[in-house]
Structures are given as structure tokens and as C-alpha cells.
Amino acid sequence: MSKTTIKRIAFALFLIIFLIAVYFFIGQPILTFVNDTDSLQEFIASKGVWGWGVFCFLIIVQTLSTCIPGTPFYLAAGFILGGLKGALVCDLGATIGNSIAFIIGRRLGSKPLYFMFSEERIKKIEDRIIAKNPVFIHFLFMLLPLPKDTYAWIGFYSKESLPVWIILTYVFRFPHIFVYTFGGELLMEKNYAILIAGAAFAILVYLGLMLYLKKKKVA
After folding, report:
1. How far apart are CA 88 and CA 191, in angstroms?
2. What SS3 class is residue 161?
3. 3 state SS of 133
4. CB within 8 Å of 108: residues ≥ 6 apart
């Protein structure tokens, strides 16, 4: 194997081990805390606004990690605060996390990606994003159930300004997050019929939109 290939394999292994370590040493304790809704609710009630500030910070960590699932956070927020307010808080944390990743990615550029992928492949990805309308690709990733947190790290390819990135991320992440926070609220109220119907409707909407985009060769 060439030195370049060895470097790529070594970097990929390091990244995998790092993400696993982040999940088990940071993610698991956070998820345990968030999943214990009674303790979480008591903590937030005792801290007031600062409690939600801490919760928002945990979501920032979650989005930056790319390996800690966000669903438990959204369900917990909906369970405690309600669908709309919970979605607004979660969306704020997720947008801040994604924006930090966007800034770091833009600062570092594509060089770190060369450790994992060939320059030719990165060029193809960049050309594909540009050819499909970068801002529209950003919109699709934020709106649809796609790996948003991972995309944020390569979002610099879109060439968007930071204010535009923040606004688009906050606005178009909201519907996806609201689906979960509203679900958390319904779980709290034990309104399972509406929960199932809402989940089925959301799935149909997402599938319909993705099929339409595929038919139009947009995505």
C-alpha cells in the first residue's frame, strides 16, 4: 500500500475510535440524564432559564459529535416543555451546533477530507453539490430525514454566508424537530392514536417528497 493509503486508513481508524469514545464517555452519560425525564424536569425547574440553557448546550454537543442521537433530546423537550416550545429550544441548540461545524469546516477547508477520500472523489462531491444548487441541497438536508449533523461539517461547499446558513438551518430544521417534540408531548398525554396517525402522515409526506425529488432528478 502507498503511504497515502496508509494515512487514510490510519485517519479513518482514529476517527472511528474517537467517535466511539465520544459516544460511550460523553454521549451515554448525557443520554442517561436526558432519558431520566423526572430528574431532567427537576433539574430544569430548579435552574429555570439556566436549566434550559444547559439543555441547549447538551444539544450543541450532540450535534457536533455526529454520533450521539438527537431523538431522545427532542422527545424529552416535548415531554417537559411541550411540542412548540420544545422544538424552538432544540432547534436553537441544533442550529448553533451545526453553525459551529460549518465555521470549523470552512476554516479547515477540504484538507482533512483528503485523509479519508481521494481528491478526485472530493472533487466529485463538490461538483455535485454545486451542480444541484448548493443552497437547495442545504435546504433538503435540513428539511428531510438526512444526516444533517454530518452535512454541516461539509456545508462550506455551499459558499453561503454565515447569516444565511444560520437562518436556513433554523427555519428548515424546525419541522423535523417539531415532529419529535410534538410526539414527546403526545406521549406525555398518552394520546397514542394521534401520535401514530401523525407519525404515519409525516412518513408519507417525507416519502412523497423524496420520490418527487428523485423523479425530477433533484436529489
Report:
1. 22
2. coil
3. coil
4. none
